[in-house]
Design a protein that fits this description.
With 173 residues, the chain is mostly beta strands. 5% of the residues lie in helices and 46% in strands. It folds into two domains: 85 residues, Elongation Factor Tu (Ef-tu), domain 3 (Beta Barrel), CATH 2.40.30; 69 residues, SH3 type barrels, CATH 2.30.30. The protein contains two helices and 13 strands; from the N terminus they run ββββββαβαββββββ. A hairpin with a 4-residue loop joins strand 1 and strand 2. The longest helix has 5 residues. It starts with a strand and ends in a 6-residue tail after the last strand.
């Protein structure tokens, strides 16, 4: 069974001809349309969908599905999550990772202190930030840390094999 990856979300209906706003989670927003077919999930239901057209609109994206001819037909897709088969995503060069690969990894300092696990990754504009949840009371009263994902400054190494990220980080911070 193929694993599906969340790539975006369907927003509000746009206009009266069945177009919908699309919120892309891909690095380059338009790249969401490079991966088809889409599988839309809403309320426990899953449906494969074909995109008949898409375009940029203002600062966002809009799309028309082959099954939507009017606003009412499009409305049933509002709020759906957009998934694609994992094998549609390109393999990354050595040393690069998808966010989904980092989530769940253990985070330890270069001195061996266990900081917890990556629970999320946030984009801040300047750099990505790891959200690290402590596995236990860590003695510093920290339940969650935000650690910049900056190689050669904070991130020492990332190992997909051991599912571990080594950081140069003060546990008290």
């Amino acid at each position: 069974m193929e694993k599906k990856i969340l790539l975006g979300k369907v927003g509000a209906v746009y206009g009266i001809k069945g177009w919908l706003k699309i919120h892309s989670f891909t690095d380059v927003p338009e790249a969401i349309f490079d991966y088809t077919p889409w599988s839309l999930k809403l309320g426990g239901k899953e449906q494969s969908i074909e995109i008949s057209d898409w375009r940029r609109h203002n600062n966002g994206l809009i799309a028309k599905f082959s099954t939507t001819e009017d606003r009412d037909q499009a409305q049933r897709f509002v709020g759906s999550e957009v998934f694609v088969e994992e094998d549609l995503l390109p393999e990354l060069p050595e040393g690069e990772f998808y966010w989904r690969d980092l989530i769940g990894m253990a985070v330890v300092t270069d001195k061996g202190y266990d900081l917890g696990q990556v629970s999320d990754v946030m984009e801040t504009g300047a750099n990505d930030v790891l959200v690290v949840k402590a596995n236990r009371n860590d003695g510093f009263g920290k339940k969650e840390r935000l650690i910049p994902y900056i190689f050669d400054q904070v991130i020492v190494s990332v190992s997909n094999e051991t599912k571990q990220i080594c950081v140069d980080w003060d546990p008290g911070f």
